[in-house]
Amino acid sequence: MPELPEVESLAEFLRERAVGRPVLAVDVFAFQALKTVDPPVAALVGLTVTGVVRHGKFLDVDCDGLHLVTHLARGGWLRWHDDLSGAKPVRPGRSPLAVRVRLAPASEDGGEPGFELTEAGTQKRLAVHVVREPTEVPGIAGLGPDPLSADFTVQTLREIVGGSRAHIKGLLRDQRVVAGIGNAYSDEVLHAARISPFKVAGTLTDDQVAELHEAVVGTLGAALARARGLAARDLKAEKKSGLRVHGRTGQPCEVCGDTVREVSFADSALQYCPTCQTGGEPLADRRMSRLLK
Predict the structure, then answer these.
(1) pTM
(2) For 7-49, what is each residue's pLDDT tens digit?
(3) Of 174, 175, 173, 165, nearest to 204 (Cα)?
(4) Burial class of residue 18, CB neighbours in 10 A (0-12, 13-18, 19+)
(5) Which domains does the chain have, with CATH numbers?
(6) Treating both helix axes as pointing N-terminal to C-terminal, what angle do 4-17 and 206-227 enclose, rounded to 10 degrees?
């Protein structure tokens, strides 16, 4: 799933290539992805892209005040093309292609650049909204503070965790609490902070909150720095190459050399290092425990 660093990098990528270009066409192939009907998608045609920003894990393309907002979900991605003038239509449901946006060429003899939104897998969760204000999207309206903003201070995080009975892993992933962190970077943050994913948030000491804040800002900032300037097609590989525990089950921890372990759930899994995070004790894999009963 694209998280804050990747979505921010996609926003920067589109700002460099799309801003200032009029929209020639918007074709929707996966109709279940379109979550709004007013304004219609056709209202974007003829408008000019004036900005691209990120809200948490939402990508917002501003077209003269009308916003094309996308949440890429688990299997979604954005593909840029320098020329879509010869692109062929696809049959709905027969392709991972969900939406295609064609933009005006820079000159009369240039190609028609643009981007496509795609979604792999059988679970179709990619969401596209056309709205007059970004806050009309329910997920954006309820976002918590952005962890890379100046407002996200140690005191802000202390107020978030204070008194919470939630596990810190789940709290970090809750977009209403902190915007932009998903499964992968929550694993990375907690590894950097040397905190168990099942630690009850409200039991963190002041020193642990300060260390967690440093880990959040440092981990996301470093990931964004690595991704900055890369083409959209290269962002997935860059994300994977920079992860130290997430997706590395069975491999040695780069910090201490212990084996990275995993806890599996119904539709996801988390990874952690026992030595770095849980005092050397492996966490119970709840899915395996159920199978053994």
Answers:
(1) 0.92
(2) 999 999 999 999 999 999 999 999 999 999 999 999 999 999 9
(3) 165
(4) buried
(5) 4-141 (3.20.190.10), 154-292 (1.10.8.50)
(6) 30
